[in-house]
Amino acid sequence: MLNDAEKERSSGPPRWGQERRLEFIDFRLRWDRTINRSELVRFFNISKQQASADLALYDRIAPRNIEYDKRLKTYKISAQYKPHFSAYDAQNYLKELEALSSGVLASTGSFIGWVPPNDVVRYPVRPVTAERFLPVLWAIRDKCELQVTYQSMRRPKPTARWIAPHALGFDGHRWHARAWCSESAEFRDFVLSRIQGVHLTREATISSESDFAWHAFIDVIVKARAGLTDGQRRAIEADFGMVGGELRLNCRKALAFYLVRQLQLDRLPDQTPAAQPLELANRDELAEIISAAQKNSESSQVTPRQKE
Prior knowledge:
- With 308 residues, the protein is α+β, with helices and mostly antiparallel strands.
- It has three domains: 4-88, Arc Repressor Mutant, subunit A (Orthogonal Bundle), CATH 1.10.10; 130-207; 213-294, no CATH class.
- The protein has helices spanning 4-9, 16-32, 37-44, 48-61, 90-102, 130-142, 212-215, 230-239, 256-262, 287-294; strands spanning 34-35, 66-69, 74-77, 144-150, 159-170, 175-181, 186-191, 195-203, 217-224, 246-252, 278-280.
- The protein has a five-stranded antiparallel sheet, with helices on one face. A three-stranded antiparallel sheet has the order 1-3-2.
- A hairpin with a 4-residue loop joins strand 6 (175-181) and strand 7.
- The radius of gyration is 26 Å and the shape is globular.
- Residues 1-12 and 296-305 have low confidence and may be disordered.
C-alpha cells in the first residue's frame, strides 16, 4: 500500500495540496532565502517523509533555484534563482505583511516566515454590526428592498426610508451600500455604519441595471504636477508606477468621486508642487466628478454620485 509521499510522487500533475506546498517552498526561498523540512512539517502538518518528497520535487521542477547547505543542514536559494510561481511579488508580500501586522491574517495563514520589524497606521474603524449588515447582504443577493432607519448627515434625526441595495463599495475608509432610494428616486451611497435598523423587506421594483454610474467605467488620469524639478518628477513617476508620465486609474463612475477625493485631486492648486505633487491630466473630462468632490461629502450631490 502506498504511503502519502508515494501517492504524490506517482504519475500525473501534483495535487492541489502539494502544489500549495511547492508555492510555499518557492516563497520562503525568495523572501527568506532558506527553507528546511521542519518548516513544511509545522506549517502543513505533514510527515517528515512528505516534506522531503516535496523538497525533492521542487528541486526537480526548478533545479537552478535551490541548493543544499550541508554545513547548515538547510536548503538555500541559489545564485541562479528565478521565481517559479509568479503570484508573489513585492506588492503581495507587503499586503500580506500589512494583514499580519493589523491582525487581519493569522500567522498560521501566512507564508511569511521571518517577519521584519514593522507597524501600520491604524485608522478609526467604522463599526458595522452583523445584525444590520446581513439583511443588506441578503437584499443584494435576493434583489429585495429594505425599509431602514438611516442617519444622514444632511438631516438632524434618523429617518425611515426604502432602499434597494445592489452592490457594496469601499472608499478606502468605510463601506457603503450602493442602493436605489425610493424617497429621492435615485441611486445613492448609504454608509453601512449609519444604518440604525432594518425593519421590513419587499421585492425590488428597480433593476440595478438602471444604475448607469455603477456600471459605467471612467479613466482618472494622473500625472506629476507642473513645477516639480526633473528629479522630483522622476521620483513621483516611479512612486506611482507611471507609464509615459501618466497613471491611468480605471474605476466605476460611481466611485471616481472617492478616488479623486482621496488623492486630493479635487482641490484647487493652492498647495506647492512639493506638498501636492499630483494633478489630473484629464480634468476637463472629470469636471462633474470634481465638482461633486469639492462639495461637502454629506451635502446634496449631483449625478453620477449621490451620497446619504
